[in-house]
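Hello support,

Our group uses your service weekly, and this is the first time we've seen a run hang past the timeout. The protein is Carbonic anhydrase. I'm not sure whether the cause is the sequence or the server load. Input pasted verbatim:
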Amino acid sequence: MAPDPRVANFLTRNASFTASYTPAPSMADIIKKREPFIVIVCCTDGRGDPRAFFNLQENEAVVQANCGGRVTPDVLRTLHVLDLLSNDGVGTVIVCHHTDCGMINVSDDEMIEIGKKKWGAKKGKVEGMWFGAFEKGKAVRENVKGEMEVVRRDRWLGKRVLGLEVLGFVLDVETGKAEEVKL
Ligand SMILES: [Zn+2]
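Update from on-call engineer: The timeout came from a worker crash unrelated to the input. Re-ran successfully.
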C-alpha cells in the first residue's frame, strides 16, 4: 500500500517546527520537577481533545487518550510509572468524556459481529474480546463516574498517603463546554 500522502505534509510541517524549536528539558530535569502531574484520561475523538478545549499549555498535563476514555490497565500502568518516576508523582487524574462518543452507541457484542465480517474472523476468534464500549443508553456522566471509581479503587493510587485528586468532566461537543461530574 502506498503511504498516505498526508504524511508528507506532516514532514513539511515538522521542518517548520524544527526551524523555531527550543530544546526540550531532559528526562533528568523532568523527573526533578517539583509539582505533581495532572493526567487527563480522554477519548481519541478529536472533538473531545482537552489540549483544545482546556487550551492546555505545553507540559501542563499528560493526556492519555484511548477510545472512550477508559481507565484501562495500560492507563493505570502509565499513572503508576509517572507516580514512581517523579518527585511529586501524580496529583490529579481527570477523566474527561464527550457527548456523541462512538463508544456509547455500540456494544462490545456488536463490535464482535463487525469483527467477524470485517476481519473475516472464524467463529470463536473474536468472541470474548474487550473493546471497552459503554453500556448503551447509559448517561455519559455515569460512565465518567465509573472510570473515576476505577482510579480510586486502584490498589496503589487509591490508598496513597499523599492523597490523589480524581476529577471528572463531560465535554459537550455541540457547545464546547466542559461540565464537572461529581461522584
Ligand atoms: Zn469518544
